[in-house]
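Students often ask why we bother encoding 3D structure as a string. The short answer is that it lets us treat folding as translation between two languages. Here is a chain of 397 residues written in the first language.
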Amino acid sequence: KCAMNNPIEKKISNLRIAILWIVLGLIAGIAQGCQSRPAETTAVQLVGLPGQTGQGFDRVTGPLDFSFPQDHGPHLTYQTEWWYYTGNLQTEQGQRFGYQLTFFRRGLVPPAEVVGTGSAWRTSQVYFAHFAISDIAGKQFQYAERFSRGAAGLAGAEGEPAFSVWLEDWSVKQLDEITYQLQAAADGFSLNLRLVDQKGPILQGDRGYSPKGSMPGNASAYLSQTRLEAVGEVTLAGEQFPVKGWSWMDHEFSTSALAEGQVGWDWFSIQLDDGSELMLFTLRREDGTTDPFSAGTWIAPDGSTQALARDDFSIQSTAEWRSPHSGAVYPAGWHVSIPALDLDLTIAPLMSDQELNLSFVYWEGAVTIQGRHGSQLVEGYGYVELTGYAKSMQGQF
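And here it is in the second language, the structure alphabet:
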């Protein structure tokens, strides 16, 4: 190799080396994902992706005709899609864990505008995923994040012949009509579960049509599996814990975003010991009020549903918690009342610190529920998601 004595040549060479290291660092960061408690959030932001306006993508404007398992799979003509798995698990000795495994898909270019080049690496889809485990007894919350292109088998989703969604070795795969295998592993923690659907797909809102604002198309298609029996293992620091419990899956797709003035949402999934479930979400406005497009669904033990409008329920915060990581102040206890169902519930986090400080900061954690349904005392577990408290979600979703 020739020695470079020219100062300009040396500067150019050093610049090339620096650029190479930056590129390699970005690739390594995307491949490995963020570790627990990252010092800084990931630089990759949805707000920076092309096609932010959604032009050229389909919009959800009313109820759709669903067919399964095809509609558990991806809907590439819509810009944004996610598959959300959460659950509460315990060992035979009563040691409790919560978990979250979420896959997000973002369309960069509408399918009609994709031009094939023959390259296996070319894609119009970006996937990212979040994985977290709450060790309730140990008061430890661990989480990780990964990004990948939807190409070369690195990440993707399918609805036929059976449903699957994956990002590298994080995956959910359908085994038969009602059974799924969920698995994910990060640095120091992993999860392997067999999920059996007890109720089948639940269509949220109006036959799956869930409006989020007054503008036409500002809505999502929203499907859930609200009673998934879970059996498997949680592994923490090399120690394996056989567990069982209940899981919940949410699947949404849309080409919409938060409406003007909306900064985030609070979402509740509740599984009661009488075999019923409850989903509620409130859209929060920047002036602190609740948006009228907030809604919910009551799912009876037999799987029948009752849609809930904003005026059908009330949610009152009973406590708050300040994150030592982001400084955000979150509600940390709730009272839920639904007069038409004669339902009153008290909800409390199983542990305070279940905040994910990733490419966007939000709180998502396991909760316990106690209350009354008519004359019957009920209890159960669930999950709550709180977004927009550290920073507005405008421009993110």
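Translate back mentally: The CA atoms of residues 53 and 359 lie 20 Å apart. Keep this in mind for the problem set.
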